[in-house]
Write a structure and sequence with these properties.
Two copies of one chain form a homodimer.
Chain A (H helix, E strand, L loop, with lengths): L16 H7 L5 H10 L3 E2 H7 L5 H13 L3 E6 L5 E6 L1 H22 L9
Antiparallel strand pairs in A: 1-3, 2-3
Chain A binds a DNA duplex through α4.
Pfam family, one (chains A, B): HxlR
Protein name (chains A, B): Transcriptional regulator
Keywords (chains A, B): DNA-binding, Transcription, Transcription regulation
Amino acid sequence: MTTVNRPGAPDGHVCGIDTAMEVIGGKWKVLILWALHERPHRRFGELRRLLPGVTEKVLASHLREMEADGIVRRVSYDEVPPRVEYSLTEDGRRLNDALEPLAAWGRERSAAGRRGLPAG
Amino acid sequence: MTTVNRPGAPDGHVCGIDTAMEVIGGKWKVLILWALHERPHRRFGELRRLLPGVTEKVLASHLREMEADGIVRRVSYDEVPPRVEYSLTEDGRRLNDALEPLAAWGRERSAAGRRGLPAG
DNA sequence: GTGGGTGGTTACCTCCGGGTGAGCGTGCAC
DNA sequence: GTGCACGCTCACCCGGAGGTAACCACCCAC
């Protein structure tokens, strides 16, 4: 998603931002990242409860994509009932760190109470 | 877009990230931000040429939204032919700064050549 | 046997962000 | 009067991300 066909970079990306945007471009991905950052080794149902409104299908596909992107690690234990644990990879942790300034910006904006109002 | 109805914050946001994600959640918004960061006071047609593939409609609506979000300033000169200049507000500049680490992460990832491959 | 909890998959369907193409209103060049 | 450049706006359409709901396999508690 959000792939921009643009010359200038071999992979069609302009400035690294859109590379990152592709990775975090799912509706719930940053929240998953956040949940996994707060505490590593989250289980599927735990994540689902932490993200009220997400459906199993979407959560599962998001996690698959993030695993394929190398930012989430999935460990499945061969038990009954089945147990699966998700955690951040090193790359995922660095992505989360890179998101912190953005989060700070958002928090500032929320604190300032502006939610679509023109800036002063 | 990407609005998550979630308790815990008065505005339905969890951690500031999704506040930011809403603001930059358009297909071309980060690129507009980038173009406006490289040089302030871009004209409409200039931006269109800088973002090959964007349509007038989408560029216009993106700019309107960013203006409403207070990160872009729009100055219209009453001339013929009409001239409109776009620039970043202070908030927009800070947003761009907050995006830098993310861009660095993306550049690193591009440099590492991984584009969806599992992490090693 | 019925229900619950585990972590999914599958088949549909909805919704809206974004793409397409046209038109507008002005003045200048031809 | 025809066309162009500018910076849009409007009406329409499409694709895909995401939502809905059912189902699967397993075991335990009742």
